[in-house]
Structures are given as C-alpha cells and as structure tokens.
Design brief:
The complex is a heterodimer of chains A (78) and B (765). Chain A is mainly beta. Helix content of chain A is 12%, strand content 47%. Chain B folds into 4 domains: 2-177, P-loop containing nucleotide triphosphate hydrolases (Rossmann fold, 3-Layer(aba) Sandwich), CATH 3.40.50.300; 191-260, no CATH class; 306-555, no CATH class; 564-627.
C-alpha cells in the first residue's frame, strides 16, 4: 500500500498532510495562496465532489479538476 | 515623507487603500468609516467596480479606496491587475494611495497574513486592521497584539467593524500613520531569488531604455514577473517586458529550480515561513479540535438530503416573497405611471409633446422603475444569505448539479434569480471569480423565464390554447403550455451554457475552491445598504439607456404623424356621428314620450356615442400607427417573419417590444384597433386577436401555431433593453450585449420557425 493517496480519497474525518501539489503552475499557485501547500494538515469533513476540507482554522469547498494532482499522507482516521 | 508634512497642514487629501481577503468585513469597515460614499462605475476596461469614500478626521481629509477582496496580489487577469495598479499608483484615474489599510480576519490569521506579506513589499505605510476579534476569541484564539505589532513593524489595530467597536481608535490612528517611519519586517526570500530579481530589474531597465522610454517597473512587479508563470504581468505590455526579457525570465526560473527554489512554490514557502515567524508566540490557538456552532450547523445545512431540502425551502420562501411583495408594487408603479400619463393627456393639448411625455418618457420611466421592486427584494435576500454565510453552502449543494452544465455552484443563485428578472440575476454574478464561468452565466441568464414574459404568455395562451382539462381539472392544456415554455427556456439555457463552455469560452475548468465562512448574525444595516446600492447601480447604470431606447421606439411609432391623417379618418365617421345627432334631435322633437322613456333613449344614445368616439380614436391611433416608421419597419420585415406565420402587425409589435417584452401586449392592442391601455387579461383584446384576418382575405392571422411561434420567440429572444444594458455595465463592453442579442434573436427566430412550420403540419393551413 502506497504511503500517499490523492486528497479526494481521504474519508470523512480523516486527516492528511499534503505531500505534493502538481499541475498547471498558476493553479498550483492559487492553491498556495488559499493555504493549501506542502506540509499543511488537512481534515476531510465531507468527501465527494465537491468535498469540504478544513485547514488552518478555515473550511474550504473544493472541486479538483483533471489538471491537478494533490497527494496527501494519511495521518489518522476515525 | 514630505507629503505627510503637507497633509498636516490640511492642504491635501490623504488616500487610503483598503485591501483584504474576501469575507474579512472590509466593505463593512469601508462603509463604517466613510462619511460620503461614491460609486463611480467601473475602472476603465475592466469589470471592477470603483468604490471611493471620504472621511474627515481632525480637519484632515481622507479618501478611501475600497479594493475588491482578494487572497493575493498576484494578478492573473486585467481585473486583478487593477488592484495592484491602484496600490502602486499606476492607475491614473485614482490618486496614488498614501497608506494601505490591510483588513485581516483575526480568526484566520495564517492565510490572511499571506496578503499582508505582499502588501508590505509595496513600500507604502501600512496599517494592519485585525477585524472579527470577537470571532477569534470565540474560536479560542488568543493574540499578543504588542508582540505582533513589533514583529510586523507596522501598526496593528483590533476591531469589530460590524459592531463599530474600535472604529474611533482606528480613526485617531490615521493621522499618525501617514508619518509612520517604522520599517516593515523583511521577507525571507532566498538570496538566489533576490539576485534574480536584481538581475531581471536591470534587464528590464536596459530593454526599456533601448525602447527610449526610460520607464521603470516597480520592484514588486519585477518580482511578480519572475513568480507568476502565465500570470497577467507577462501579457500586460509593461515597459521593458519584451520577448527577449521573457526569455530571460524563463532562464531565471530554470536557474531557481535548479537551486532548489522552484517557481511558484518558492513564494508560498517564503511567505508562509514569514507568517509562521510573525505568529510564533504571538498567537495561541486552541481551536483546532473545537467543534464550533458553525460545524454543528453545517452537519445539517450541508447535508446532501436535509441540506438540500432546506435549501429548496429557503428558495421557495424567497420566490414566494417576490411574488407576494413585488407584484403588487409593480402593479402600483404601473398604475401611478398610467395615472400620470392620463393626467398629462387631460391637461395638455394634443400633439407631439404630449405624446412624447405620456407615451415616450413616462412609459420609459415606468419600464425602468417597474424592475426596481424585484431587484430590491431579490438583493435583500441575496445580501441576507451572503451576510449570514449561507450562500457558500448553497453553492456547495448546487455545485454537483451545475458542474454537469460546465459551471460551478456559484452560478446557481444568479440563474435562479433570473426566473424573477434577469437584471438582478446578472448583477449577482459578481460572486463568480472565474471570468469564463461568469460570462457564460451572464449569457444564458436571460433565457430563464422572467416575469416580463408572463403577460405575453397569459394573453396568447388564454386566447388560443383550448382550455382542455384532464384528471378532474388538475391537469390542463393551458397550464401544460406554460410549463413547456418554462422548460424550453431552461433546457435552452443548459444547452447554450454547455455549448459556450466548449466553443466561445473554452478553456480548462479551473479547480473550484470556495471559502466557507463562519455563520454570523447578519447586520441589517449592511443588508439594506447592499440592497440599495444594487438598486442604485441598476438605475444609474441601465436606467438612462432604457429611457433612451423607449423614447426612440416611441418616436418610431409616432412619426411622421401627418396632422391631416387624423381628420381624414374622422371624416370617415362624420355620417355616423351626424346620424346620432339627428336621432337626438328627433328625440327632442318627439312629444308622445314619457320622461322615463325619453331618459332611457337618451342614455342609449349617449352610450352609442361613447362607443363611437372610442372607435374613432382607436381608428385614428391605428391609422397613425399604420403609417409610422415602426409600421414601415413592420412591412419591411414582413418577408422575414412570414415563415414564422406572422403578419406585418405582429412584426411591428415585436420590434416595438425591444425595450421590454411586455410592451408587445399594449402594441398589439393599438395596432389591432383597440386603442391603448389593453392588458393581457382584456377579453376584447383576446377576441380581436382571434378574429384578425390577413388584409384582403378571410384567412385568420392567428391560429394555434402562430400563437405558439410567437410565444416560443418571446421565450428565447433578448427583447429587454434593461438586460442588455446591465450586461454592458457588468462586462464593461458593448460586444457582449450585442452578442447576447444576436445569439438569442437567432435562437428565437429558428425556434419560432420550427414551431410554426411543424405546427402547420398538424393544423393544415
């Protein structure tokens, strides 16, 4: 089993640490600006498309597109 | 700063730029600070609204510039470039700011300070306003303000803008801030990066002086050029940014990547590292695991089943309110306008001026004002739902649905609002950040069945669709026709959106990210202000254009107006009038009648004369209409509309309804000799339409296929000057309203053509 999995595969309640974000530079840049960057911990609140995640005290609704790949290291689950 | 010394003397207005993330309460602060507010339209060439306010503190005048909420100063579009240009003093129509007021959400400091880190790089005196202090403490966040201020090197002021707490101390701080000398803390960009910036700066200088301009780019923009791959700075035609320099930029990016500082990751890394340094020890947060009220509410409100059910319930209440409150208000406005126009007709002598005032100006004013109740009520609810934080949840719930069309959840409310009226629908697309999504939403919003189409549908359905009922009256053909027309608009909108996303506005759908703000109690003051601002934006942005169009159409329907035409028509009735007169005379001479009999006969005569007079004035109006420029246009387009089953009179009425769809009802009334003031419920108008024939034949103009073809045309056409005017205002270009008109009219024509031709196969004409 791989140590990393795509962000949207996290189950509700699971926490993951962002390992890498790759894709079109300007989009990756935008995610950075919203606080989604390597090393940050993300909690999946509602899985699915779009999903709801919590990071650094705020909640984001997020729908990924094909051009982006966010890998996370799962930390804990409920 | 020398300017600061001058300011002390009160000789100059100090300009303060308000900067901040979305949902930080920046606009609330702007409204609370400014004594005088002005909205002076958009910045040139973009869709960003220019908001400027003024405030007087201790005799010193301050101008406040409210910038759009943003997460970063890394421009990707002309719209985002405006914010950077205003801050750098490059936007010529706004005074260069002397101070930046950076509004920060105290409960989300980490992400908010990212923007602050960019703001302090601009080299202007900066003040950090920590808003929502109450929310921060609710979330278990404790702040050491003195430490934070020392670290940042700029004044930090705590505030609760929505309750006006801390406002006075902020105002007292302002005069000192402009003399601020403290040095803002420096960002820990790696040396390799700094060297590349210096190198690029001299490259730019060389390129610029070679071109003979000598203009230099501010250091911040040089940084952006290096950092923003595919960003707007690359394309913005800035001094010195030549293809050779862009070549250098890619080389520099490659060198940085090799050195272990790839672009754009180096920016996030550096800035968040700086943020962590600033906050370390200055912020104690115990909020990570705390379940807040927002979380508890979200468990229900964002639930796929319960949340969706509640959302539908909210929408039902909103639209019910529009119909309960707006419709009577609209009727009232129409009545007042009708009364005014009646009074003008009674007071003034007949002529072009009277007609201009009564049928041109007043009708135009009426067609502007009649939109206001819906706009105000819809925006009251939109502002309310947005202020309390629910709107983001609604967008989340509807995203799955809208994604199938190629849009995001944020397009749902604008499209839904368009069922009441496309004008507020289009105005509320401002929440959609993605330019393409926003444009597609604007383009398809007018296809939603707005309330102005109802009079047209009501008239034609009642006149031509048989009142057939099934299932004990529950299911009726008339109702089904209405439903089909609603569905036609919706399905066409979905298809058009899908098509636009794949052709005209093609491009990769960016990832959809939306902040879900904390719920809070909405401030009524803010909600009402936003409602009024939108109403005013409509009146000032679209009102004049609608009025002009209404007057032009009036002129087309009135002129050339040869005065002898009226007397000619009247002369045709002279005999009938004379006959009536004779009978009256005869009645006077007759002696063998009782008083009662005489009275009854006189009443009878009076009634007949009234009817004849009405008939004459209708005939005069119709005669003038028939020779007007509008009718000539109707004749001119008859070959084009013939395949739709229309005669010149319908063509003419459709042209006349360009300012607003509902006008077609009144115009049909005039053109079919019924006089003015007929509305969609008028039985005589229905009867007249049913019995109208093609000139010189017994063949009826209207049959079911013609009525359907006309309704389909109105379902799909862009016959609404207000919508087109608001599209122009929102897109800041004439190209989009023209495109909307052309594509919708083409759709309407083809739709009507298919309807009529198919219909005639069944009816057999």
């Amino acid at each position: 089993m791989s140590a990393f999995l795509p962000l949207f595969r996290l189950a509700a309640g699971q926490i993951g640490e962002i390992e890498s974000i790759s894709g079109e530079p300007s989009q990756v840049h935008r995610l950075h600006e919203l606080g989604l960057y390597q090393g940050i911990k993300v909690t999946m609140i509602r899985s699915g498309t779009p999903c709801v995640i919590r990071l650094a005290g705020h909640k984001l609704c997020f729908r990924q597109n094909d051009g982006l790949d966010i890998q996370v290291r799962p930390l804990a689950g409920i | 700063m020398s300017s600061a010394v001058e300011t002390r003397a009160g000789s100059r207005t100090v300009t303060i730029a308000l900067l901040g993330n979305p949902n930080t309460g920046k606009s609330t602060l702007f409204n609370a600070l400014a004594d005088v507010r002005q909205h002076v339209g958009n910045y040139p060439g973009v869709t960003v609204e220019k908001k400027i306010g003024h405030v007087l503190v201790d005799g010193q005048r301050f101008a406040l510039v409210d910038l759009p909420g943003t997460y970063s100063l890394a421009p990707r579009s002309p719209d985002e470039m405006v914010t950077v240009d205003v801050l750098l003093g490059r936007q010529t129509d706004v005074a260069a700011p002397d101070v930046i007021l950076c509004v920060v959400d105290a409960s989300k400091l980490e992400r908010n300070l990212y923007l602050v880190s960019q703001a302090i790089e601009l080299g202007l005196p900066t003040v950090v306003v920590l808003n929502k202090m109450d929310v921060a403490s609710e979330h278990g966040i404790e702040l050491d303000l003195a430490l934070l201020q020392k670290r940042l090197g700029v004044p930090v002021i705590p505030l609760q803008a929505d309750r006006r707490i801390g406002l006075e101390s902020l105002k007292q701080e302002l005069p000192q801030v402009i003399e601020q000398t403290s040095i803002a803390s420096e960002l820990p960009f790696p040396d390799a990066f700094r060297q590349e910036v210096v190198r690029l700066q001299s490259d730019l200088q060389d390129a610029s002086s070679q071109a003979g301009s000598g203009a230099t780019l501010p250091r911040y923009l040089v940084e952006r050029l290096l950092l923003d791959q595919g960003g707007y700075v690359e394309q913005a035609d800035l001094p010195g940014v030549t293809s050779a320099v862009l070549e250098r930029v890619s080389e520099a990016r490659a060198r940085l990547a090799n050195a272990g500082f790839p672009v754009p990751a180096v920016e996030a890394k550096t800035r968040y590292q700086w943020v962590a340094q600033m906050l370390d020890g200055a912020v104690v947060s115990r909020s990570d695991d705390r379940i807040t009220l927002t979380d508890r509410l979200d468990q229900w409100l964002m639930h796929r089943v319960w949340g969706t059910a509640l959302f539908i319930a909210v929408m039902v209440v909103v639209f019910q309110s529009i119909f309960t409150w707006a419709i009577p208000l609209m009727d009232l406005i129409e009545k007042v306008i009708g009364w005014l126009s009646g009074s003008i007709s009674a007071v003034m002598a007949e002529g072009a001026l009277r007609s201009l005032l009564a049928d041109g100006v007043l009708a135009g004013v009426g067609s502007v004002l009649v939109f206001l109740p819906q706009i105000l009520i819809l925006f009251f609810f939109i502002a309310l739902l947005e202020e309390c934080g629910y709107m983001a949840r609604a967008a989340y719930l509807m995203d799955r649905l809208m994604y199938r069309v190629g849009l995001s959840g944020k397009s749902f409310i604008p499209l839904l609002s368009s069922f009441a009226c496309a004008v507020p629908g289009i105005m509320s697309t401002r929440v959609i950040e993605d330019r393409r999504d926003r444009l597609v939403t604007i383009l398809v919003a007018p296809l939603m069945t707005c309330s102005a189409r109802l009079p047209v549908y009501t008239l034609l359905i009642a006149a031509f669709i048989p009142d057939q009922r099934w299932l004990g009256g529950w299911l009726g053909l008339q109702g089904m026709t209405m439903l089909a027309l609603y569905l036609l608009g919706m399905v066409t909108a979905v298809l058009a959106a899908w098509l636009f996303k794949r052709t005209l506005l093609r491009g990769q759908t960016p990832a959809f990210i939306m902040e879900l703000p904390h719920y809070r109690f909405p401030s009524l003051r803010t909600v009402v202000r936003r409602m009024l601002e939108n109403g005013w934006a409509f009146l000032s942005g679209a009102g004049t254009l609608i009025l002009v169009v209404a007057i032009l159409v009036w002129a087309a329907a009135y002129f050339p107006h040869p005065p002898e035409l009226g007397s000619q028509v009247r002369a045709g009735y002279a005999e009938q009038l004379a006959a009536l007169e004779q009978r009256e005379q005869g009645l006077q001479d007759q002696d063998d009648l009782s008083e009662d009999q005489r009275q009854a006969a006189l009443d009878q005569l009076l009634e007949e004369r009234g009817e004849l007079r009405a008939e004459i004035s209708s005939a005069v109006a119709a005669a003038y209409m028939e020779q007007s420029y509008l009718a000539r246009a109707g004749y001119f387009i008859e070959p084009v509309v013939r395949p739709l089953g229309w005669d010149w009179r319908i063509g003419c009425a459709v042209i006349a309804s360009f300012p607003a769809r509902e006008v077609v009802v009144g115009t049909l009334g005039v053109i079919y000799h019924l006089g003015e003031g007929e509305d969609e419920t008028s039985e005589s108008l229905r009867e007249t339409l049913r019995s109208a024939t093609w000139p010189g034949t017994e063949r009826k103009v209207f049959n079911v296929p013609v009525a359907l073809s006309l309704m389909v045309f109105f379902a799909l056409c862009a016959q609404c000057a207000a919508t087109l005017a608001i599209i122009r205002r929102e897109t800041n270009s004439w190209a989009w309203p023209i495109f909307t008109f052309v594509y919708m009219t083409s759709l309407a024509y083809v739709g009507a053509l298919i309807t009529y031709q198919t219909g005639m196969l069944f009816v057999g004409g």
